[in-house]
Amino acid sequence: MLHVAIVGAGPAGFYTAEALAKRLGTVAIDIIDRLPTPYGLIRAGVAPDHQSIKAVDRRYAAVLAGGVRFVGNVEIGDGGVSIDELTRLYDAVVLATGAPRDRPLGITGEDLPGVMGSAAFVGWYNGHPDFADLDVPLGQAGACVIGNGNVAIDVARLLAKTPGELAASDIARHARSALAASAVRDIHIIGRRGPYQASFTPKEMGELGLLERAQPRVNRADLPDSAGDAALDPGLRKVVGHLRNFAAQPRTDKPVTIDFDFLTRPVAIERHGEALRLIVEATRLDGDVAVGTGVMRSIDCGLVVGCIGYRTAEIPGVPFDTARGRFVNDNGHIAPGLYVTGWARRGPSGTIGTNRPDGGEVAEEIATEISAGRRAGGGGLDALLAARGIRPVTFAGWQAIDAAEIAAATHPAPRDKHVTRAALLAAADGGCAGGTTPL
Ligand code: NAP
Question: Is residue 147 in contact with ligand 1, taking CB distance under 6 Å?
Fold first, then answer.
């Protein structure tokens, strides 16, 4: 039997497992994750108020219920199992580790307290154990969100929503209470280029116009002549339509504003007592490229969140393209028997569903290129983990965590997330025998 290990229990990993099982019928697949929980960005990236998008986790649960093993709480690389060990144990290894690191802003002051990337901020409100203790200062009126993609919209929307608007979300409890007490009123979404170059999508943009206490504002002068809209692709045309609508609205008495600061690039961040000051430069477009004009201004704020894209985390022994922030690969091939899929392969773009064809492709390559050898597979991994004292979380363990989180929720929230590794492991163990594999 062919033994395949997939590293990363997010959408890219699950679509690969699903396609492999369908293509081969008989195959032993282990999905390994450094967290005790599966589903990657569905749990820790997708906004907590977008529950309909998160519902895809049922499809992934069906993959685990169908016999694919979940091996949680196991790090591949430093401190866990090396990539060499893994490739010796399995006939094929697929890296589906995504892009969990923030791209740096590359400006002075980005290391100041109160300045963070979206991986950290989104991880904080989504209850990712690595960011549960993040210090998120919400005591100043101003907050700057840098970037013109959907993550910037998520961050601005979460900062703007009322506790009532978040009631039916699965936002982590610490973030729910911090945001309820937040003093943030002036949110700026900063884009270095213009509305025609933005990466927003229409649904996310439209939601900003429906917020209870926040008004999105666009400066008419930043909008290109509407004659150009007809040539835009349909999605962007709708986005620009929303922006034109926001620009046409008179100021309401809503207490929170979300200003789109187009043609504005961050230059530096300074600290002044408790507050931050983001220094920005006005830009102009030379074709599609933003060029600085030398005209500077500053925005007072307490929080700066860079939403400018992500990088894959390096794994010792796997060639890494530092400039692109992902593994070196040739159409998903890294080395014989070692593959990559999803954001770790092509970079952080596209929706959850974009990973599906990617998974299908890598499954087809494995099916045609690899034949079963005399590998130890999952049994060998279990023995190695036991020898190292690493207790993996099983699917049953995850189901126990899931049940505990759902039981702890206050209606209408769907769950109250456990946000520390210790709490997650205790729930995995406590809920059922075999939640973590006994040594
Ligand atoms: P993104 O869509 O690639 O947007 C990144 C933004 O950062 C761009 O506006 C980019 O501007 C800007 N940027 C990059 N470097 C910068 C710098 N040094 N200074 C200032 N601005 C800079 O990335 P994302 O928002 O992180 O989203 C990642 C992917 O997840 C996207 O495909 C997104 O659609 C998807 N996503 C989807 C949803 C949803 O469907 N609800 C939600 C969240 C994320 P330039 O264009 O000028 O480079």
Answer: yes
